[in-house]
Amino acid sequence: MRRFTATAASLCALAAAGCTQVPSPAVPVARSNGGTCFNANQVRHFSTIADDVVDVQVGGSRFYRLQLSGTCNSSVSNPRAVLRTLGGGSWICGGLDAQIVFPDAFGSERCLVTGVTQIPKPLYGVRR
User: What is the annotated signal peptide range for this record (predicted)?
Assistant: First the structure.
């Protein structure tokens, strides 16, 4: 009888543990580089700073400067730029998480994002 009681108590404890809520994985907030993550689907506007730098507005009040690999000649004149994440998720937290695709009449130019820095609104769109 003791063995049955101990086994029943163990099963009840396991069942109760199985019913407890496991916290959902947190949305990425930061990386070791101190940058704040953002969801690529929330990008509202692009502003080209240089051939290798693009600013993005995320939502209504967050701004990020994206450093691109090399020069991206299409970035200066192409308003149809698309930010695509790499690796299957929607979050961009740092360099190598995304690329910007600039479609044109001859195909598209793809520029790898190598750095992400959150910037204050007064710096958004300001050429260096």
Answer: 1-15
Instruction: Tell me the CA distances in angstroms from 107 to 23, 43, 80, 104, 111, one per residue in order.
Output: 44, 23, 13, 5, 13
Closest Cα partner for 120 from 36, 44, 52?
A: 36
Report pLDDT for 12.
47
Q: pTM for the full model?
A: 0.69
Q: In this predicted structure, what is the pLDDT of residue 20?
A: 46
How is residue 81 written in tokens? 């730029």
Q: Collect all residues with Cβ–Cβ distance below 8 Å to 45 and sequence separation of at least 6.
A: 56, 57
Residue 2 domain flag: no
Which H or E element spans position 56? strand 53-58
How far is the C-alpha of 92 from the C-alpha of 95, rounded, in Å?
A: 8
For residue 107, with 0-12 CB atoms within 10 Å meaning exposed, 13-18 middle and 19 or more buried, which class applies? exposed
In a domain, 108, yes or no: yes
Residue in 128, 39, 49 with CA at minimum distance from that of residue 83: 39
For 96, the domain range is 38-119
How far apart are the C-alpha atoms of 57 and 44, rounded to whole Å? 6
